[in-house]
Amino acid sequence: MPAPPHLVFVPFLARSHFAPLAAAAAAACGDGTTGATILTTPHFAALAPASVPVRAAPFSFPGGHEDFSLLPDEASAPAFFFAAEAALAPALAAAVRAHAGAVAVVSDAVLHWAPRVARECGVPHVTFHTIGAFAAASMVAVNLHRPDVLQDPVAVPGGFPVPVELRRVHVNEEALAHLPLFRAAEAGSCAVAFNSFSALEADFAEYYRNVDGSPKKVFLVGPRRATPSTARSDVAVTGGAERDPILQWLDGQATGSVVYACFGSTCGLSADQLKELGAGLRASCTPFLWVIPTATEGTEQHDERASGHGMVVAGRWAPQAEILAHRAVGGFVSHCGWNSVLDAVCAGVPLATWPLRAEQFLNEALLVDVLRVGVRVREVGGKADVEAVVPADAVASAVGKLMDGGEDEAAARRARVRELGVAGRAAVAEGGSSRRDWARLVDELKALHGHGNDALIDK
């Protein structure tokens, strides 16, 4: 019987990218079928699950910046990517060669150099997407089939599984420009894995597999989400007298009554927008929990209770997965980052969608137009709409619609997302679809040992 492969996971140096790969590494260690190592930098090593060995490569970037998602506007994004490659590529080669048995590399899709390093070391490589299959498939379809100038709006072309119409501003032109580089790199992988699950995105994963005639296999292995109990630096306080004050406050709220608002750790809002968001939450007459992980102008550095309205938490980490799973939470105002989407869907919580950048607009289209588990906070027809301050009345209106506006419609939305939540939790349970996909991928990697990336193709 072939020896269990040792998987070297290489996340990109951004927290939203690091978390799902780290969670996948923890799952790989925990199921007994593989060993795993995370290759990263000292900054991110502190965030790795305690159950997974870490190899930390020295990393230096002007200004001391270590997390791509927190780079200031004046910093050079290409220079950061170059610095990441300079630090991690030789460390990856060393990590692979340190293992005498079967080894495979699992790296973030944006690390376009990783398949080359794996090939030079004679080991298989798996491309891991931290975005959803719908967003990835949409980008590939538009890139392969678009005319010289994108129409506005543009229907996603190429026989897409469902009819979807996007505004031009929804399509990240910078990402499109780099897509050929990433696709060429992915062609050097033996397989592609998405942090998603079959009931959510099977059709889009299949489209992604077939869109360009590639023989590569595509696996849905999620949801892989960071959990507070596995982090080295974020200590969860979830029981007894040390239960997080946020959860204690939720304990006192009626079932399904609270709307939770959070825009992630890297999507900052202006002081004017924060003011309008707060006013809108209060005007909605709905109990709210508003978390601002990174304190900025206009936020406080401590928990405060807005008497008669809700709770504001600024400048600290909050246990999002536990918040969304709490019985009191009935809706989520979100920027539509993929990690937050998975958190909400797996908890069975509908969303008020407020995308800000990157593929978040594509995630909104999936949630609102395809799955019908979300409502838009605003309509975005152009760049000016993205940059405009959303007024308080628009926030209040969206929250009202999400929580109880049009009672039958809201009930149907809740039923759909709860069904997806059941499917998402089942996918990673024993015998679930994602567990089966992961087992198939590991079996194929075992068979590939000594044969390289080209052997893993559809039969």
Automatic annotation (TrEMBL):
<dbReference type="GO" id="GO:0008194">
    <property type="term" value="F:UDP-glycosyltransferase activity"/>
</dbReference>
<protein>
    <recommendedName>
        <fullName>Glycosyltransferase</fullName>
        <ecNumber>2.4.1.-</ecNumber>
    </recommendedName>
</protein>
<comment type="similarity">
    <text>Belongs to the UDP-glycosyltransferase family.</text>
</comment>
<keyword id="KW-0808">Transferase</keyword>
<dbReference type="Pfam" id="PF00201">
    <property type="entry name" value="UDPGT"/>
</dbReference>
<keyword id="KW-0732">Signal</keyword>
<dbReference type="InterPro" id="IPR002213">
    <property type="entry name" value="UDP_glucos_trans"/>
</dbReference>
<dbReference type="InterPro" id="IPR035595">
    <property type="entry name" value="UDP_glycos_trans_CS"/>
</dbReference>
<feature type="signal peptide">
    <location>
        <begin position="1"/>
        <end position="24"/>
    </location>
</feature>
<keyword id="KW-0328">Glycosyltransferase</keyword>
